[in-house]
Amino acid sequence: MPKAAEVIAIDEQPQKVKINLLGFSASRLGDFFDEMGEKRFRATQIIKWIHQMGECDLDQMTNISKDLRERLKDIAEIKLPEVVSCQDSVDGTRKWLIRVDGGSCIEMVYIPERERGTLCVSSQIGCALDCSFCATGKQGFNRDLTAAEIIGQLWIAADSFDQFDPKAKRRVTNVVMMGMGEPLMNFDNVVDAMSIMLEDNAYGLSKRRVTLSTAGVVPALDKLSDVSDVSLAISLHAPNDELRNQLVPINRKYPLVDFIESARNYIDKMPDNRRKATVEYTLMDQVNDRTEHARELAVLLKDLPCKINLIPFNPFPGTEYKRVSNTALNRFRDILAGEGYTVTVRTTRGDDIAAACGQLAGEVNDRTKRQERYKKKLDEAQPVRIIE
Ligand code: SAH
């Protein structure tokens, strides 16, 4: 008779957790095959199957011997996050709600334009930074997304546009890391996922067409220039520390001078010296939209090769901010243009399905108290009926 402890050991044999190959970059997958005692070129084969042909079933990967497929299946799998819903806006913008392990949901948005199609990808479940004007921050924070969950978003979009068919037109031409989360707070996974975006045997996007956007995690930005040269967007939203401390709290830790210097180093290190950073500036009525803010911004940015993207604030439930007026927007743009900057105004897209910048909320199983406070505030803000 087996002893009780042995019985328990047998009964409780856990289901083997398999390695998810979806988020493995070419070099990581190469190391993985090395460790298996296999040739590194297997990595290229697998990457092509997953990210070029859209095949996630190891059994269908016919140029890999049956024997190796069986060994792989024993330890590994290719597992995608689950699409919960997909909504289309009247303007062609599409928004997905995607469930990840643990039950939270993230959002991803596709924005078609005449010359390109941009996929806005999330990097975290919620966001820890709590910028005062962003809906994601109000949801609190759960965890970083894995590399598989980040690249899985591009896979899902590519699949939904039949892009894995070699004859199909490529609908996703650009990726911006501007969805939920702060990509530089999830450094390794974001770098791995971006390398799959750029990889010729995967999505083959040019480094100009992949953009990382950051609110200013300076040490991570310094580190990024050593391992990546994707396009950079910096979320400024204010021309001085006093105002920026209120809007983007991480500014208290890494003030504007440091952020801008770090961005400049990133741009300077790029082999191609024609490149510029994109400065994002969300304009809110009476907050950061005055003439003096525009002038101050022009001075602040004088040594940074950049173009400026002005984003009219998109409202969300419970926010105290208002969209900039058209007069203030035009005035702001003209001042910067007059100082020689290239200025673009981001048109609001997908507003009807809450897919516009800063409106992504998902369903975050919050680990902070922030969501609770936000919901309480919303409840309290219910209009009071006036009894006459
Ligand atoms: N954490 C990163 C990535 C998120 S992208 C970052 O801050 O850059 C967030 C971008 O969405 C910001 O640059 C800002 O331009 C925009 N944004 C956030 N909230 C917004 C809102 N309510 N209206 C318009 N744009 C907003």
Describe the structure.
The structure is a single chain. This protein has two domains: 18-77, DNA polymerase, domain 1, CATH 1.10.150; 82-380, Aldolase class I (TIM Barrel), CATH 3.20.20. The protein has helices at 4-11, 26-35, 42-52, 66-75, 135-138, 147-160, 187-198, 218-227, 241-247, 256-269, 291-300, 326-338, 370-380, and strands at residues 19-20, 76-77, 82-88, 94-99, 105-112, 117-120, 124-126, 141-144, 174-177, 210-214, 231-235, 277-283, 306-312, 343-345. The model is unreliable at 1-8 and 383-388 (pLDDT under 50). α6 (147-160) packs parallel to α7 (187-198). 35% of the residues lie in helices and 17% in strands. Strands 3-4-5-6-9-10-11-12-13-14 form a ten-stranded mixed β-sheet. The protein starts with a helix and ends in an 8-residue tail after the last helix. With 388 residues, it is α/β, with parallel strands linked by helices. The protein binds S-adenosyl-L-homocysteine (SAH).
**CATH fold label of the largest domain:** TIM Barrel
* Domain module tally: 2
Structural class, from secondary structure content?
alpha/beta
Q: Please state the second-level CATH architecture of the largest domain.
A: Alpha-Beta Barrel
User: What spatial order of strands do you see in the largest sheet?
Assistant: 3-4-5-6-9-10-11-12-13-14
Strand-residue proportion = 15-25%
What portion of residues is helical? 25-40%
Return the string of H and E elements: HEHHHEEEEEEHEHEHEHEHHEHEHEH
Give the distinct bound molecules: S-adenosyl-L-homocysteine
End-to-end C-alpha gap: 83 Å
Q: Biggest sheet, in brief?
A: 10 strands, mixed
CATH superfamily of the largest domain: Aldolase class I
The averaged pLDDT comes out at 92
- Overall shape: it is globular
Low-confidence stretches: 1-8, 383-388
Total strand count, please? 14
